[in-house]
C-alpha cells in the first residue's frame, strides 16, 4: 500500500516544479526510510552500477551528441526543411518528415531516451521556426522518438523474449508489421489533421523564383548529406560493422565529418556540442537513477507482491483475459516503468495465457505495443520528460501532455487492431 | 550575505569543473567506441580492456554531468505552476527541495557508495574477463565522489535560492532547454 | 514456541528463469516444509535487486542472508573462487560432486569464502555445457585465429591463448551481433537455455563442450546469519541445498534432452560439431599453462588445483572402466 501512496505524493510533488529526477529520488527517500530504514539505500550503489554497466544505454549520449552536432551545424534543419519542401504545398510536410526520420532512428536504436532527445533537438526548433502548432510538434516528436520500442531492434522485445522464453528473432520479425502500420497511421493522422486545420502545420513556402522541378532538385541535393549519415548508421548495423549501440558513435563522428565538409567545423563547435550533450544526458540519467530509487522503494515495501495479487484475479476466459490484461498494463504504464511491468506482471500473465491456448508471440507483441504507450502517457511518461528537457521555454509541460494524446489514441487503435485482426499482421491469436 | 555570495560562486565553480570532466569524457568515449568499431572491422582486432573503457567513460559522463546540470538548471521540471510563479516562490521551491531532497539523497548514495568502493579496493577487484581492466575501485569510487559533488551542487542550489530571496539575483526566465538553442 | 526465521535470498537470475530459478524455488519450498514453517526463504530475483553480479557483495555485507549464483563470477574479486564452478578439461558432474563432498572440495571452498564472511555450498549443476554457436565451421587451428567470440571468464582466456578474440557484447545485443556477423560465435549454456535466445535460427554449427564440463552453481550464506540459526535448521538447510543441487542436475538433463529433440526436429540446419584434435590439444596445453601460472601466483590456488588434478586422475580412471566403458558398449550395439 505504501507504494500506492508514494505515487500520489510523487505526483503532487512533481507539480511544484522541482526537478523531476530529484523529486522521484527525494520522495523515495522519505518513504524508504520511513518504511524500511536507511539501510535500504545501501542497494543504491548496486543499482547505479547496473546502469553504468548497461552498455546499451551508451546509445543515449552518443545519439544525443549526433543530434546536437547536426543541429548546431544546421544540417538537421536542412534535412527536415528540404524533406518538408518535397511535400510542396502540402501542409504537415515537416511533421511527416519528422515521423520518417524518427522511424529511421528507431530502426537503429531501441533506446527511447536517445531517439526522443535526438528528435527533439533536430526537429523541434525547425517546426517552431515554421510556426507549427506546439501540441502537434511535441506530440509528433514524442511519438516518433518512441517508435524505437516497437521497431526492431528494441529493448522491450528483448526483455519480453527473455521473460516469455521466446526467440528474439521471432519477436523482431513479428514486430515489423505492427511498427509499419503504426508509422502509416501517424502519417495518415497528420494528413487528415492538416487538411482540416492547415494552420497547425503551415506548408513550406515555395521560392517564387524557382520552378517546382528546380525546387525538388535542390531539396533532394540538400537531403543527401544528412540522409547519407543516417544511412551510414543504419548500414553499419545491417552489415554487422557495428552493434546498434556502437552505430551511434559512428553517427556522432560522421556528423563531425559532415561539419568539416560543410565548413561548419570548429573545435569550439565540438566542445559546445559536447557540453550540451552532457547536460541533456545528465538529465536523462538523473531521471533513470531517481526512478530506480523509486521503484526500489516500491518493490521492497511489497508493491510487487500487491501487483501480483491483483494479476491473479484476472478472468480465466480468453477474450476477457486479453482485454483486462491489456487494460491493466495500460493503466500501470501510467505510473510504473516498462521494465518493472515486464518483470513483475508478465511472468504472472504468461502461464495463464499459455493455459488459455494463446499464441505467446502474439501476446508478446500486444504487450510490447501496450508498453510503448507507457512512454507517452502522462504523468510519468519518460518521453514527455525527455522532450521537455530539451524544449525551449515557451513549450509547457501541459502542451506536451495534450500533444501526445492523439498519438496515444492511435497506439491504442493499433493495439486493438492487432487484438481483433491478428491475421493482418501475419499472426494468429492461437497456436 | 557577502559570505553566501562567495560560497555560492565557489560552489558554482565546482559544478563547472564537474561539467568540464564530463565533456572531456564524452569526447573520449565517442572516440573510444569509434576506435573499437574500426579496429574490430578493419583490423579484426578486439581489446576487452578498450571495450570496458567505453562504459567507464560513459559512467563518468553522466555521473559528473548530474551536478553540472544541477547548477546550469538542466534538469527537467514539470512547469504546470512553476513558470507562473514569481522569483520568491521559485526560490522557496528550490531551497526546500535542495535541502530535503538533493542533499539527503546524495548523502545516502555517498555513504553507501563509499563502502561499496572501499570493498572493491580491499579485494583488489578487477575485470574477470580476458584482457579486462584492473582496479575496479576507481570507477566504483566515481559513485561516492559524484555524490559529494551532487551534494555541493545541491548546496549551491540553496545558496543561489538565498541570493534570489534577498533580491540580489534573479532566476533567468525560461530555463531548461535554453542552453541548447 | 520455537523461534521463526525468514531469510532473504538474492539470486543472479531473472524471475522465472528456467532450471536455475526452479532450483531456488525448490530449495525454499523444501526448507519451509522440513522445518514445519520455522524457516522461510524469500527469493528476490535480479529484477528486484538489480544487481545480478552484486550477489557476492550483498551477501557479504549482510544486505541479503543468502545468495544463489555461480562461484566463477567472483574471479575478478577473489581469484580463487574460480575453481568451484567448473574447469576446462576438468571433472564431470559426478566426479566433481564426489570431490566436493568426499574429496576435500567443500573444505577448500570454505577456506576461500571464510575470509569474506560467507559459506558456499554447491547449488545445482548444468551438466556439460555446449561449446557454443559458430557461423562457420572450424576445421583447423587457423580458423580460430582472429575469430570474434563472446566467451567470458577463464574459458575466454584459454580461447585467447589459441588466437580467438574474446569480445564483449551486451546480452541484449548478442542475437543481433551474431546474426549480422559483428561476432562469429557465441558461448551460452546448453540447448534448453540457448533455444530461448534463438541462436539456432542464425548459426548452423553447434559445438560440443570442453570448457565447462560440470558447471556448478552455488548457494552463498552469510556466516553471521548461519551461526545464528539453531543446529537443526542448519542441517535442514544443508540437506535442502544438497537436494536442490542434485535436482537441478537431473532437471538440466531433462530439459536439455527435450530442447535438443526440439532443435533436431525444427531446425535441421543445426549440425553438431566437435573441434578437431589439434585444436583440443592446443587448448589443453593452453589451459595447463594458465593453471600453472595461477598456481605460481597463489598458495591457495596451488592447493586447490593440485587437489582437483589428483582427484580427477584417480576418479577418471574409474569413470573410464565404468561410465565410459558402458557408453562405448552402447555405441557398439547401436
Ligand atoms: Na528500435
Ligand atoms: Na508512464
TrEMBL record, chain A:
Q: Which GO terms describe its cellular component?
A: plasma membrane
Q: Where is the TRAP C4-dicarboxylate transport system permease DctM subunit domain?
A: 7-424
Please, which domain of life does this record's source organism belong to?
Answer: Bacteria
Keywords of this entry: Cell inner membrane, Cell membrane, Membrane, Transmembrane, Transmembrane helix, Transport
Q: Which residues cross the membrane?
A: 7-31, 51-70, 82-105, 111-129, 141-164, 176-196, 216-241, 247-265, 277-299, 319-336, 343-369, 375-391, 403-425
Q: What is its main location?
A: membrane
Q: Which Pfam families match?
A: DctM
Topological category with respect to the lipid bilayer: Multi-pass membrane protein
State the Gene Ontology terms under molecular function.
transmembrane transporter activity
Q: Where in the cell is it found?
A: Cell inner membrane
Q: Which NCBIfam families match?
A: dctM (TIGR00786)
Q: What is the role of the protein in this entry?
A: Part of the tripartite ATP-independent periplasmic (TRAP) transport system.
Instruction: Tell me the PANTHER family matching this sequence.
Output: SIALIC ACID TRAP TRANSPORTER PERMEASE PROTEIN SIAT-RELATED (PTHR33362), SLL1103 PROTEIN (PTHR33362:SF7)
Q: How does it assemble?
A: The complex comprises the extracytoplasmic solute receptor protein and the two transmembrane proteins.
Family membership: Belongs to the TRAP transporter large permease family.
Descriptive protein name? TRAP transporter large permease protein
**UniProt source species:** Marinobacter profundi
- Lineage, broadest ranks: Bacteria, Pseudomonadati, Pseudomonadota, Gammaproteobacteria, Pseudomonadales
TrEMBL record, chain B:
Q: What is the membrane topology here?
A: Multi-pass membrane protein
Highest taxon of source: Bacteria
- Where in the cell is the protein located? Cell inner membrane
**Is Transmembrane found in the keyword set?**
yes
Q: How is this protein annotated for GO cellular component?
A: plasma membrane
> InterPro entries annotated for this entry?
DctQ (IPR055348), TRAP_DctQ (IPR007387)
Predominant place of localization: membrane
- Write down a Pfam family by its short name: DctQ
Tripartite ATP-independent periplasmic transporters DctQ component domain residues: 29-155
Ranges annotated as spanning the membrane:
14-35, 55-70, 91-117, 137-162
What keywords is this UniProt entry annotated with? Cell inner membrane, Cell membrane, Membrane, Transmembrane, Transmembrane helix, Transport
- Single Gene Ontology MF annotation: transmembrane transporter activity
State whether it acts alone or in a complex, and with which partners, per the record. Answer: The complex comprises the extracytoplasmic solute receptor protein and the two transmembrane proteins.
Q: Which family does it belong to?
A: Belongs to the TRAP transporter small permease family.
Described by its record, this protein's role is as follows: Part of the tripartite ATP-independent periplasmic (TRAP) transport system.
* UniProt-recorded name of the protein: TRAP transporter small permease protein
**Where does this protein come from, organism-wise?**
Marinobacter profundi
